[in-house]
Amino acid sequence: MQAKISFSDPSSTGLIVKLVVQDSGHGHKVPKSFTGKKFETSFLADHNTLLVGLGKEQEIKDDYYRRCGARATKAASALKFDSVHFAADGLTEQSCNLLLEGALMANYAFDKYRSKEEKFQRIGSFSFPKSMSSCRDQMEKILKVSQSIYLVRDLVTDNSDYVTPRHLEDVAKKIAKQHRLKIRVLQEAQLKKLGLNLFASVGRAGNTPPRLILLEYNGNARPGEKILLIGKGITFDSGGLNIKVGESIKDMRMDMAGAATMLAIMNAAAQLGLKKNLVAALACAENLVDSRSYRPGDVIKSYGGLTVENLNTDAEGRLVLADTIAFAAKKYNPKVILEYSTLTGAVLGALGSHCAGVVSNSPEYSKKLFEAGMETHELVWELPLFEEYLDETKGERADLRSIGKTRSNGTIFGGAFLSKFAGATPFVHVDIAGTAMLDEAKDYMPKDGSGFGVRLGIAFLEKI
Ligand code: BES
Ligand code: ZN
Ligand code: ZN
To answer: Which of 236, 309, 314, 452 for a ligand 1 pocket mutation test, highest count of atoms within 8 Å of Cβ?
Structure first.
């Protein structure tokens, strides 16, 4: 159920939220012990009011409003309120929009497998002062985008036995039907016939066969000028014959986060009526183990003709993506490719979970993505693609090797490898392995599937 938004006086049964700036001499009703430090909260039961600190005035950042909105929502839910009203004091249109964004992102839990008593109580409505009613259009947009974020979280967090390549196809078809998008799915036999051998090899031992899902949204009156969105959709990554040892394998149902996020961006773009022509290519497969598994050491010929020495079956993402990039770039001739993948564990070592890693052949577009990251606070940081890194991808028994000679610079190697398949097309690779699934919740990101990348992608599209 979608939360309601209104511009009205607070309801008698809802929670009233007041933001307090530290050291602002904030008058009456504020208890002495409450200083307004950033994210400090205090519930005044007599007044159904929650105070939330913003910190010192000069130090307030935009993202604090999202975080305050999130804290208010979680507190309201825990206190069993059904609605939240943000009180006027010092709010601007911009801060109201940010508050709502954070509130909606926090108004979520993956609780489908929980018994009734433990389900998260969602807030049914958010209200703002009447004087902020000029925010209505922007807020409707934020509400739509939040639905797409929930979709990604649901898909990333749910079981890999349920979210299979077939399931992703079903969801994509449903979205296509809803928004009248063009959809075409290349099934396993067609992948082989067309020569997407890297892709087909990875999915060969899957319980559900691999497939490439292609979706088109035409929101721009001018035809031509397509933007290609590519996502890694490995619905379970066991590592293949180079099977993953240790704990990390249990998280590998999230290895389709790139595909889910691109699908959600298409959904949001269509809902918002974005004036762009978009193509999404979702590379879906299971990386499993049986006698049909593809094998380490074999050379495989890619769609574009480049041959690849497959040195480790756990480096499967770059293989399905390489064929997808080459195939879709040729078919659609896009002006830019934006690609999301949970590609390397190494990106966690470099950037942790606060920021995604970027590798790109286009300073112009990677700058735009960086700016989109700063605006949405879905942060990205670019790693270099110097010639030396590209040289490392040279193979011995084939044109390319699939992994580096050493374990160093794993994230750049992955990006460098992929860029070989983009040719001269501007290409922005975003490694979301650290950000797509979280071990611990943040203010407006839950544990497990975070939904990272939806707002980032939309902000990027709006800029180009
Ligand atoms: N899906 C993994 C990367 C990953 C790791 C995602 C941790 C999320 C969290 C990817 O397919 C993989 O296994 N990469 C290998 C590459 C290596 C074999 C060159 C890795 O990162 O170890
Ligand atoms: Zn892998
Ligand atoms: Zn993987």
So the answer is: 314
Q: Is 130 a catalytic residue?
A: no
CA count, 13 A, side-chain hemisphere, 211: 19
3-class secondary structure, 411: helix
Q: Hey, which residues does 337 pair with through a beta bridge?
A: 228, 427
DSSP string, 331-362: HH--SEEEEEE---THHHHHHTTSSEEEEES-
* Structure tokens that stand for 37 in this block: 């430090």
User: Is 121 close to ligand 1, i.e. is its CB under 6 Å away?
Assistant: no
The reply to whether ligand 1 has any atom less than 6 angstroms from the CB of 410 is: yes
Q: Which residue carries 């036999």 as its tokens?
A: 189
User: Which atom, in ligand 1's list, is nearest to the CA of 410?
Assistant: 19
Q: What is the pLDDT of residue 408?
A: 95
State the pTM of this model: 0.98
pLDDT in tens, 265-312: 999 999 999 999 999 999 999 999 999 999 999 999 999 999 999 999
For ligand 1, whether the C-beta of 313 sits within 6 Å is no
Give the sheet arrangement for strand 211-218, strand by strand: 182-187, 211-218, 277-287, 226-237, 336-341, 427-431, 356-360, 380-382
Question: What local confidence, expressed as pLDDT, does residue 1 receive?
Answer: 78
- For residue 89, the SS3 value is coil
Residue 144 is among the residues annotated as catalytic for this protein: no
For ligand 1, whether the C-beta of 312 sits within 6 Å is yes
Instruction: Tell me how far CA of residue 95 lies from CA of 20, 61, 278, 370, 456, in angstroms.
Output: 13, 10, 31, 22, 19
Query: What residues have their beta carbon closer than 5 A to ion ligand 3?
Result: 234, 237, 255, 317
**Probe target for ligand 1 pocket from 242, 294, 344, with the most ligand atoms within 8 Å of CB:** 344
Band of the pLDDT at 26, cuts 50, 70, 90? low
What is the reported pLDDT for 185?
98
Q: Which residues contact 373 (CB under 8 A, 6 or more apart)?
A: 355, 356, 379, 380, 456
Q: Are strands 226-237 and 336-341 parallel, antiparallel or unpaired?
A: parallel
Q: Which residues contact 151 (CB under 8 A, 6 or more apart)?
A: 171, 260, 263, 264, 267
Pocket flag, ligand 1, residue 101 (CB < 6 Å): no
**What is the 8-class DSSP label of residue 394?**
B
